[in-house]
Amino acid sequence: MKKRLIIIGGIILFISIVNFAAAFYIMKSDNINLGFLKSNQTGEEAVPAFAPISPDTRNAALNDGTVHYSFDDSYKYDEPDALHLQERQLNRYNIARFLRELKYGTDINSYTLSQFLDRIDVPYSDIQIINPAGSINDRMKMLAMSAVYTDYDIDNITHLENYARHLWAYTHYFVVNGNGYAASVLTSNTQLVEGFCNDIAEEYKKTGSVRLHINPILEDYFDVDIPENFVWDSEKRAEASSLMSLSYSELINYLIYKSDETVLYSPLPLYNQGSGTWCDTPFAAGTVRSDGCCPTSIAMVLSYIYDERITPDVVAAAYDYDEYRSYNNGSFGVSMCRGVARDYGLNVIADKGFLSAEDLVYYLGHGYKIVMSVKGFDRSTGTGGDYSGGYHYITLAGLTSDGYVIVNNPGYATDITYDPPSKVAGNQSGKCYAIFSK
């Protein structure tokens, strides 16, 4: 009897511990009122089905804009394969890197500042940047606003940094050698630049170092003029303000969650030129960030075909030669795609010219992957392409169940899109198309 009571008591104790742990977890998770941040998932399929198209139906896609597929239930969209899981880890790295720099007070415009210092032979290491008390809250504010502005496209670190730089430049000022300068002096070519540099040089000459004080100049950052077609309406302001109310660790975790939640489906991994792991790799006269759209597009195809991460820096380094790119005018797409096919043992049809919408549906429907040169948008005339501001390379990953082309765009402020074949065909520059298969 005593033994039975001990056993029963042990079971009750175990159940109590489990219930207490569960209650503590719920209490802890509910302790933060995230308001609009709570999940709104319905359990419905969030991505289009991907299935091959037969030659008999490819013409129908162009007649009515849709193709009817049978859904392949064997493909598990909610269980990313190993390659896409690696990309998710890369996204986390990018976020953590940027936040770490914010946390330790690294000026997000330090690269621009160092360029000015090079002109007057003042080492950046001799600059002492003095931030006001509580500057981490100031930077968290910019990060929250940048996340909302970019629609949480925080896997592409360049996209996030560009807007954070814009905010910082127009909401802060420097004090050096007793004179004040708006931080936007770093982004403009005005006479203030000369005065700013002269004051830095004068103080450096006197003391051998420079104390550069940085202070906020605006209280309401929402007042800053913003580029592109974006409005800080009441809903977006409330969204950003809710992010600002989070603690540092809460904001990190939420941004990582949002980056996972907003990832769109493509059979190929999406590599952005602006990723923190390869964006500064030299290529041509610049870097992968500035000139590497073709190597980045090719890297997506190679990673898919070989089911391993073959990243843009690897491709850029291997083909950074005159045969494959112009030092000042970007990649020779045809030559580079042919060289990649030769070196990696792939089949490729690569040439200058255009593919019709029917061609795109046919090749993508049969599992081919396409790297394509597209024209840029001309702001002066309001005409041109939809995928970039200049000549650019994109990757066509496949077709959705309703006949749209899955476009992996490696540019700065871009993502995966699902576009009609006619739109994609109409964006071609005629400089290169390359159709890859194993």
Overall number of structural domains: 2
Poorly predicted regions are 1-5, 14-78
| Shape category | globular
| CATH superfamily grouping of the largest domain | Cysteine proteinases
Percentage of helical residues?
40-55%
Structural class given helices, strands, pairing?
alpha+beta
Looking at the overall shape, the CATH architecture of the largest domain is Alpha-Beta Complex
Number of helices: 15
DSSP strand (E) fraction? 15-25%
The number of distinct β-strands equals 16
Strand order of the largest sheet: 9-16-10-13-14-15
The level 1 CATH classification of the largest domain is Alpha Beta
> Using only CA atoms, what is the Rg?
26 Å
Could you describe the largest sheet, including whether it forms a barrel?
6 strands, antiparallel
CATH topology name of the largest domain:
Cathepsin B, Chain A
How far the N terminus sits from the C terminus, by CA atoms, comes to 72 Å
Average pLDDT rating = 76
Describe this structure as you would to a colleague.
It is a single chain. By secondary structure, the protein is of the alpha+beta class. The chain has 2 domains: 91-260, no CATH class; 264-437, Cysteine proteinases (Cathepsin B, Chain A), CATH 3.90.70.10. The chain is 43% helix and 16% strand. It contains 15 helices and 16 strands. A 6-stranded antiparallel sheet has the order 9-16-10-13-14-15. A 4-stranded mixed sheet has the order 1-4-2-3, with helices on one face. The longest helix is centred in the first third of the chain and has 29 residues, at 2-30.
